[in-house]
Amino acid sequence: MKYHQINSGLFVKNRRKFMAEMKPNSVAVFNSNDIYPISADSTLPFAQHRDIFYLSGVDQEESILLLFPDAPYESQREILFLRETNDHIAVWEGEKLTKERAFQVSGIRTVYWLQDFHKVLNEMMTYADTMYINTNEHYRATVETETREARFVKWWKERYPAHNVAKSNPILQRLRSVKESEEIDLIQHACDITEKGFRRLLGFVKPNVTEYEVEAELAHEFIRNRSKGFAYTPIIASGNNANVLHYIENNQQCKAGDLILLDVAAEYANYSSDMTRTIPVSGRFSDRQKAVYNAVLRVKNEATKMLTPGTLWKQYHVEVGKIMTSELLGLGLLDKADVQNENPEWPAYKKYFMHGTSHHMGLDTHDYGLLHEPMKPNMVFTVEPGIYIPAEKFGIRLEDNVVVQEKGEPFNLMRNIPVEADEIETLMNE
Length: 430
What we know:
Layout: H1 9-20, E1 26-31, H2 50-56, E2 64-67, E3 78-82, H3 87-92, H4 99-106, E4 110-113, H5 117-127, E5 130-133, H6 148-159, E6 164-167, H7 169-177, H8 181-202, H9 211-223, E7 235-238, E8 259-263, E9 267-268, E10 271-272, E11 276-280, H10 287-305, H11 313-330, H12 336-340, E12 380-383, E13 386-389, E14 394-397, E15 400-403, E16 411-412, H13 421-428
Parallel strand pairs: 1-5, 3-4, 5-6
Antiparallel strand pairs: 1-2, 2-3, 7-8, 8-11, 9-10, 12-15, 13-14, 15-16
């Protein structure tokens, strides 16, 4: 891995928190992701399943974590299963975890090779009453591919039909949404790498550069700072492309007078950052562009203040909608009649700001978190309002990542990334 090794104490804490929530006499199993084939002998780059990483720090394929806090013997309470490594694998694929190295990474002392998994699991099942299976229940998830986890669940249910079944996901939704200080430091590091990429861009962008050249500048800066690259598919949308919310073609020329909406961010050690900035191709905003820009910035700043303990996500978005409505009236994009006659199910402001303002962020860009439960300290959220005006051929979105505090306003992990219009103009014209 490119990133510096994470102290295993984080994963020890995470496992303790998870096991404290398990039912008596129960086992939980977590599988790594597959390496997905493309065709012939080609594969996609490996990306670890975030749950097994969260609980163990293990970042390689064909790995399994078993947790059994009530096991008869202490050595059976936390077990890692790894693909057996050897000199041939080291030559052809690179170094894999040895048993000693796995202990250093995870803090787990009992490590078996993968071929022993079924034998060991069978013994654990004779002691246990309940199995925790790890299903994907994220509110945005749409999964068509049968994952390694799904194959395991199918096999386990056939092999052990007399055991009770419980779900890991509800526990993880709550645990992963509240970050440990080490996790916040990792997200901050990802944000700092993102800052370096953005500052690099401000000296690079000029009329007639292409969106893909901008993407290349970011990729260069991210990777040279120990990131694998983008935390998600980058959006580099110049001109009217910004009005396509998930524009990812990034193949157009950036023209003088246009804006570029950049929804781009680095990952670090599997932790995401998630930034959006909008900058002028020519280095100066027009008066109209700046007026809309500053309206979005005001909404972002006011919305950020609301991310406090006890806030409910749904009500928060209602309040943000009121602020956005006021700004749109000031810009002349809405009038009073639009607001008075609006459909409560789709308020008038949604014509120009049709997406949500905030989501949980962490190991996943859209991270775990139960949106119907009140916000808590050390949750990390995005704040990302936007105004999209196809008739004027530009859209503006601004986005920061913030940590909910015990008291007062959230802590902005992107506080050092330029966002004021005047500062962006100054840096682009140095």
